[in-house]
Design goal:
Layout (H helix, E strand, L loop, with lengths): L1 E5 L3 H12 L3 E6 L11 E4 L12 E4 L13 E3 H8 L3 E6 L4 H14 L4 E5 L5 H4 L8 E5 L2 H4 L8 E4 L13 H13 L6 E5 L3 H8 L4 E5 L5 E4 L4 E4 L2 E5 L9 H17 L2 H10 L8 E6 L2 E5 L6 H10 L4 E5 L9 H9 L2 E6 L4 H10 L5 E3 L4 H11 L5 E4 L12 H13 L3
Parallel strand pairs: 1-2, 1-4, 2-3, 4-5, 6-8, 6-9, 7-8, 9-10, 10-11, 16-20, 17-18, 17-20, 18-19
Antiparallel strand pairs: 12-13, 13-14, 15-16
Bound molecules: uridine-5'-diphosphate-N-acetylmuramoyl-L-alanine.
């Protein structure tokens, strides 16, 4: 077959290995004319990279490329190929925020219960790279983004939809398309499959109630929920653990814990491994990660926070006075709710950085908040400014509510530089 791989990033590279190993003739198509590629590979690079796709027998779309841009008869994606070829049962997790944490917690619970688990998808490992090692009795846990789900032709056996909030409106033309893309996680399920939804989030609730599979809510008494009276996490009437057993910081993570309990209970039917995983998992890198304590000030790296909802959750996760670092590249989002949370959130100073700094300043001033400092363009300077503003007992919180691409290569590098600058204060 003549196979065109659209986009040569992480998934494109996985696709190249996969289809090349099957002996097909590959052409890499990418908007970037300066890509580094293996020698001898055919290419179609630059502005016309999406032209003449009808000449190929198969076209493989990378998640970052919009399906509407691709004019070809036989289109697939790494996600579609994996969903078709995977020999084991799959648990898929989507939602706006909490996907990575919930996906990982599900994997840890199943591991604690003695299962062999494979973890991948949007969290960083392209699903096709998992395929060679998967045995039929294993479990696969996939984090799935709207970009990956949008043209999905199959759904996972157990599908989890976490909270949905406004995001990626620079890529999807509107929220309706974003939510419809996420709903593909349920759309192709059938009898015997399980659709898990967040009963306290309208878009997730509506999507779950419309799912063709068996439905199981969380944040609801007939599913996994937090019993505030007894301070416990329950599955129906069964106590799984105390809320104080949860090692993840912040109340928003109780939602992720409940989602993971709902997804794994039907498989393990035993509170012990679930509690063990919940009490041992402190979180992923760059998600409310404590990276240093200097002069009585705690430095928290929440660089993964790229929208207002996650920054609000981060502000609410700490009772201490905060020096908050906000800003980055623009995703066309409103900062009004974030500004309200800053006012209520005991924020000593907000340091504004990057392209969205002026927009954030307006939103903060509109709600009467003026403890604002403009940050420099490099992380050591930003952290020094934060350190000077903080008092012993404070938290310096990098939770930017924005993507990183104006000042940093990606959110991981932004977080890594923050941690390094904080440690350099010692
Ligand atoms: N490209 C084009 N045209 C475009 C867009 C991209 O030619 O319109 C090219 C770029 O020049 C580049 C390549 O495509 O060479 C990049 O491909 P990609 O953007 O699809 O990204 P990958 O490197 O393949 O990584 C993807 C996910 N990226 C996106 O969805 C944008 C990764 O999620 C994921 O970890 C990886 O596959 C493995 O599955 C990242 C992400 O930001 C972390 N996801 C979003 C999020 O979490 O909010 C959805």
């Amino acid at each position: 077959m003549k196979v065109a791989i659209l986009g040569y990033g992480v998934e494109g590279q996985a696709a190249l290995t996969y289809w090349q190993n099957q002996g097909h003739e590959i052409t890499i198509c990418d908007a970037n004319p300066n890509l580094k590629l293996p020698s001898g590979i055919k290419t179609q690079l630059g502005p016309d990279y999406l032209s003449n796709l009808s000449h190929f027998d198969l076209v493989v779309r990378s998640p970052g490329i919009k399906p509407s841009q691709v004019k070809a008869a036989n289109i697939t994606s790494v996600t579609n190929e994996f969903l078709e070829e995977c020999p084991a049962k799959i648990i898929g997790v989507t939602g706006t925020k909490g996907k990575g944490t919930t996906t990982t917690l599900i994997a840890k619970i199943l591991e604690a219960a003695g299962h062999t688990v494979h973890l991948g998808g949007n969290i960083g490992t392209p699903a096709l790279n998992l395929l060679p090692d998967i045995e039929p009795e294993d479990w696969v846990i996939l984090e799935l983004s709207s970009f990956q789900l949008m043209d999905a032709r199959r759904s996972p056996h157990i599908a989890v939809m976490l909270m949905i909030a406004t995001d990626h409106q620079d890529w999807h033309p509107n929220m309706a398309e974003y939510v419809a893309a996420k709903q593909q996680i349920f759309a192709h399920q059938g009898p015997g499959d399980l659709a898990i939804y967040n009963a306290c989030n309208l878009a997730s609730l509506e999507s779950g109630l419309g799912a063709p599979a068996d439905q199981l809510p969380y944040n609801a008494r007939d599913g996994a929920w937090v019993d505030l009276e007894s301070s416990t996490i329950k599955m129906g009437d069964t106590i799984i653990c105390k809320t104080s057993d949860i090692a993840l910081p912040g109340r928003h993570n109780w939602d992720n814990v409940c989602a993971a309990v709902a997804a794994t209970w039907p498989i393990v039917q035993d509170a012990k491994p679930i509690k063990q995983a919940i009490s041992g998992f402190t979180g992923l890198e760059h998600r409310l990660e404590k990276v240093a304590t200097v002069n009585g000030v705690t430095y928290i790296d929440d660089s993964y926070s790229t929208n207002s909802e996650t920054a609000i959750a981060a502000i609410q996760a700490y009772a201490e006075p905060k020096v908050l670092i906000l800003g980055g590249s623009d995703k066309e989002a409103s900062f009004d709710r974030l500004a309200e949370a800053v006012v209520r959130g005991d924020v000593r100073t907000a340091i504004l950085i990057g392209a969205t700094a002026p927009k954030l300043k307006v939103a903060l001033k509109n709600v009467g908040y003026d403890q604002i400092q403009e940050g420099p363009a490099t992380m050591p300077g930003i952290v020094r400014l934060a350190a000077a503003a903080a008092k012993p007992g404070d938290v310096v919180l990098l939770s930017p509510a924005c993507a990183s691409f104006d000042l940093f290569p990606n959110y991981k590098e932004r977080g890594r530089l923050f941690a390094a600058a904080a440690k350099a204060l010692l």
